[in-house]
Amino acid sequence: MKIIKYISAEGWLTGALALLGVLGLVFMAQLVAAPKVLFGRSLTAIPPSLFPAMVLGAMAVLACMLLFALRGSLLVRESKTFEDGALRRVVMLFAVMLFYALTMSVLGFFISSAISMAAVAWLAGNRSILQICIVSIVSPVALYLISTRGLAVSLPELSSIEFFYARAFEAASTAPVDAGGAEP
Question: Does the predicted model carry a pTM greater than 0.90?
Fold first, then answer.
């Protein structure tokens, strides 16, 4: 009697992450837009593909290391990978990520990230509306500020949101500092 072995869910996920990381590095030129240029000079301090290349490279290396570490347990006797509605959740997660990719340039980074994060949190089983709202609002703002201010990476955003960020930073940088409470 032949015993059929199946690839475990961890094997599928790890293999997919390794493949996506490598493919992302191979097609980096098509994934990242060229930086804005003013008078022949780039407006960014670092190339816009540096951070995505670091993340995709790290993801590919870590996934390959995990595949190596899991090599003895990648095959199982029976597959429970797509039971109990898991396939439906996988398809819904793919639909959310497709929505995110297609609406990034239309709605901007903040709005599409907030909607997608809320949908992923709901799919993952989180039912706390307060928690979902906090994570969906704070995380995109933090990621946007770290990317645009810290890493000098340009992200697509609606003009009104960019103007709000600019006014908030201008107000924060020009706010008077009280030095001891003395009146002038």
Answer: no
